[in-house]
Specification:
This is Amino acid ABC transporter permease. One of its GO terms (biological process) is amino acid transport. With about 290 residues, the protein is mostly helical. It has one domain: Orthogonal Bundle (MetI-like fold), CATH 1.10.3720. The chain is built from eleven helices and two strands. The radius of gyration is 31 Å and the shape is flat.
């Protein structure tokens, strides 16, 4: 604004001193950081209140008797380990082995320059990824004996369970492996071919090993999913010695009239899945560090 010049009696333009900028304060004069702290404090308080209310009003006596009965839990051992956990691990391992081998073949067919191979791989992947796994188990347990009378899947229940899990895993692992192969730089194949390697030799010796290193974490995650999906083996009509964890827990829960066996079976699943999940995260972290 204009102010008189004390020295010359004239007027000169004097710029008013700029007012200090308002900080990032919002309503109530709180800064953004403070509002965030207040919001988080409110969320933590609400969560703590819910936990306290649940703990205060829950009937812990009935929960303990029906879900954590120590006497019932002790009666499950060692059979739940030697039968349920062992069979779950066997079914999962067989299914993953079939899925890994089949997934590699289907992935290579999906990338093939031969149209019928690509068509077959595409149809297989879309069909078996779209079907519920329960239908695949029913098909293996009922459809295969009807379609091929007098034939049995080798390995009994383990063979049937592994085949059903493997058919589904093949479709998922094929897409995972295909993505890994496509993630390998094209220069790797070009360099191998320039050295005189044939295409199959270059794929087998150069590309596929690198692709598997890339897809190890998602392969581990698929192994965890197969472990949980093995619970559908009960639809194959297995015997007492062929029961996996879910079937074992359900049978004992019915015999005891108590839910504790199912809870113990769930804990046994965690003994498998948690280490595998930790392994997958560790492998992912190592890959990020390598990049």
């Amino acid at each position: 604004m204009d102010r008189p010049d004390a020295a010359g009696g004239g007027r000169r333009l004097v710029t008013a001193e700029a007012e200090p900028e308002a900080g990032p304060a919002g309503a109530g004069g709180l800064s953004r950081r403070r509002r965030r702290q207040v919001s988080l404090g409110g969320q933590y308080g609400l969560f703590a209140a819910v936990v306290v209310l649940v703990a205060a009003f829950a009937d812990w006596g009935k929960l303990r008797v029906n879900f954590a009965n120590w006497d019932v839990a002790k009666s499950l051992f060692p059979d739940i380990i030697t039968i349920g956990l062992r069979n779950t691990a066997v079914y999962t391992a067989v299914g993953f082995g079939i899925g890994l081998a089949g997934g590699l073949v289907v992935a290579l067919m999906r990338l093939s320059s031969v149209p019928p191979y690509r068509w077959f791989a595409t149809v297989y992947i879309e069909v078996f990824r779209g079907l519920p796994l329960l239908l695949i188990f029913i098909f293996v347990g009922v459809g295969v004996p009807l379609a091929f009378p007098g034939t049995n899947v080798p390995g009994g229940a383990a063979g049937q369970a592994g085949l059903a899990l493997g058919l589904a895993a093949t479709a998922y692992l094929a897409e995972t492996i295909r993505a890994g192969i496509e993630a390998v730089p094209r220069g790797q194949m070009e360099a191998a071919r320039s050295l005189g390697m044939s295409y199959p030799t270059a794929m087998r010796s150069i590309v596929i090993p690198q692709a598997f290193r890339i897809v190890i974490p998602p392969l581990t995650n698929q192994l965890v999913l197969l472990c949980k999906d093995s619970s559908l083996v009960l639809f194959l009509g297995i015997t007492l010695e062929q029961r996996e964890l879910t079937k074992f827990g359900r049978d004992l829960a019915g015999d005891e009239g108590n839910t504790t066996p199912i809870i113990v079976a769930g804990i046994c699943y965690l003994l498998i899945t948690i280490p595998l999940s930790l392994l997958a995260r560790r492998l992912e972290a190592r890959q990020r560090e390598a990049r």
